[in-house]
């Protein structure tokens, strides 16, 4: 019998991939890729080698998927940034499952540095960015390393679409 926590984690990764591919119009009504060679397809990479490259690849993001009872968001974000670097991607975020809700309600957490770089890539003010993608701030204590910005997966799909539209197709 497989480890039940591993099964839950793998299912959450697959749910994120499937939701984003559908929301971005990259799959047909049966979930098959419209273009299997499109570099913008959201994928779950095979882990190989000593360096972890993240759970889900949604160019230009690495998504670190977490399905846990007690989220340690700052730790997850540090992990996502390292994994993005390992995979050669510019951005790493953590996506945490919200129990008993639809996948689109999953929480997508950005560290302040990543949030700022994505905002600048979109050429938006902080207020415009926060409002358009429904970000909420978590500013706990004086240690800015523990601060982060949060949105839902549904709003992240819009952000991802907008960011991709500002860049050339792969």
Low-confidence stretches: none
**Overall radius of gyration:** 15 Å
The side-by-side strand order for the widest beta sheet comes to: 1-2-3-4-6-5
What shape does the CA trace take?
Answer: globular
Mean pLDDT: 92
Alpha-carbon distance between the termini? 40 Å
% residues in beta strands: 15-25%
Helical content band: 25-40%
Largest sheet composition: 6 strands, mixed
| H/E topology pattern | HEEHEEHHEEH
* Helix count from the secondary structure assignment: 5
User: Count the strands?
Assistant: 6
The helix-and-strand class reads alpha+beta
List the helices and strands and how they pair.
Elements: H1 4-23, E1 56-58, E2 61-66, H2 73-87, E3 91-96, E4 107-111, H3 112-121, H4 126-132, E5 136-138, E6 148-152, H5 153-165
Parallel strand pairs: 2-3
Antiparallel strand pairs: 1-2, 3-4, 4-6, 5-6
Protein described:
The structure is a single chain. The protein has five helices and six strands. The protein is globular. It has a six-stranded mixed beta sheet with strand order 1-2-3-4-6-5, with helices on both faces. Strand 1 and strand 2 form a beta hairpin. It is of the alpha+beta class.
